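Sample 3 of the quickstart, ligand flavin-adenine dinucleotide:
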Amino acid sequence: MSEVLIVGQGLAGTVLAWELERAGIACVIADAGHEQAASRVAAGVLNPVTGQRIVKSWRVDILLPIAREAYRAMEKELGLPLWRDVRVRRLYLDDRERTVLAEKQAKGVLGDYIGGADEEGFWIEGAGSLDLPALLIAARARWKAAGVLREERVDFAKALNEFELVIDCTGASGGPFGFVPWAFSKGQILHLDLQDRLEPDVVLNRGYWLLPMGERRAKAGATHEPARTDLAPTPDARAELAKGVSDMNLGDYTITAHEAGVRSYLADRRPAVGRHPGNPRLGVLNGLGAKGTLFAPALAQQWVRHLVEGMPFEAEVDVARYWKGQTGLRRPQ
Ligand SMILES: Cc1cc2nc3c(=O)[nH]c(=O)nc-3n(C[C@H](O)[C@H](O)[C@H](O)COP(=O)(O)OP(=O)(O)OC[C@H]3O[C@@H](n4cnc5c(N)ncnc54)[C@H](O)[C@@H]3O)c2cc1C
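Result:
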C-alpha cells in the first residue's frame, strides 16, 4: 500500500505536497481540475494588518516569515516569479478608522507593520503577494511530469484501500470531515484595465483592495458573501466592486474579467489540520478562509513534523477540537 494521497491541488494541497516532498516523504496528489478551486481566483495577498478593527493577523509574526521563506523556495525551484514583497496603502473609509489607528498606535500593538500615517490613510509594511494561478499551474506540471499527479475526483472510501493516509485538501468542496462545522463564503473579484499606471508594488485598500498586476492591469476584490457556495459571478457584486474601485479615485478603467470562488472557514477563524479522531488514516488541511497564503506553509510544516517526528498538531488548529466523540462516522464521500 502506498503512503500518502493528497486530495486537492489548490493552495493547501500544493503547499502540503511541496513540504512533504522537501522532507523526503513520497506522496501522490489528486485533483479533479481547478474549476472549483478558490485558489484559482484568489489574489494571494498576504496583508499582516487587516479588518475594520485594524488588527494584526493571528500569529502573523511567526507565520509570515515561514510563508515568505516557503514561497521564495518554491519560486527558486520552479524557476518563475511567484512572490512579491509589497506595501499596502490603506485609505481611511471614515473618521472611525482614523481614531482606531491612532488608538492602536498609542498602545503600540501593531508593531513595525505600520510604516507611517497621514491625513488620508496609513502604510502597512511587510505584506506580500503570491501569484497563486502561476504556482498551481507550475506545480501541477512538475508533478504530472514526475508521474505523481492524478487528474481525477477522489472517492475517499476507495482511496483508503490504496493509501495509508489520505489527506483532505478539498477546500469548500466537502470531504469526509463531516463532524467539522465548516462555513463558506463566496468571493468575487474583477480584473481591470486602468487608464493610468499603478505603482507596481503597492496594494491599495479602502474597504476593498486593488492589486497591481503589471502596467495598467489590476485585480480588485473581494466580496464576502456568507453561506453562498455557487460560482456564478453576479451583477450585484460587479456593481459593488466597481463602486469600491471608483471610490479609490483612480480614474477611468475597464472591467476585463469577473470571477468567483468559495472560501471554507471556521467560526473561530482558525484553520483545521490533523487526523480524523474517528479514523486516523484520514487527514486534513483546510478551512484557510481568507488567509490561505499566510496559513498554508506553517500548517503543511506541522504535517511534516507530525509524520517525521510524531509531533502532535497544535491544539488551536487541530481539527480534533471539533470532535465530540461522535459515533457513526459520517460516510466518506
Ligand atoms: C475572491 C477570493 C479572493 C481571495 N483572496 C485571497 C487573498 O488575497 N489572500 C489569501 O490569502 N487568500 C485569499 N482567498 C482565500 C484563498 O483562496 C483560500 O484560502 C485558499 O485558496 C484555499 O485553498 P484550498 O487549497 O484550501 O482550496 P481550493 O483552492 O478550493 O482547492 C481545492 C481543490 O480540491 C479539488 N477537489 C475537491 N474535491 C476533490 C476530490 N474529491 N477529488 C479531487 N480533487 C478535489 C478542487 O478541484 C480544487 O482544485 C480568496 C478567496 C476568494 C474566493
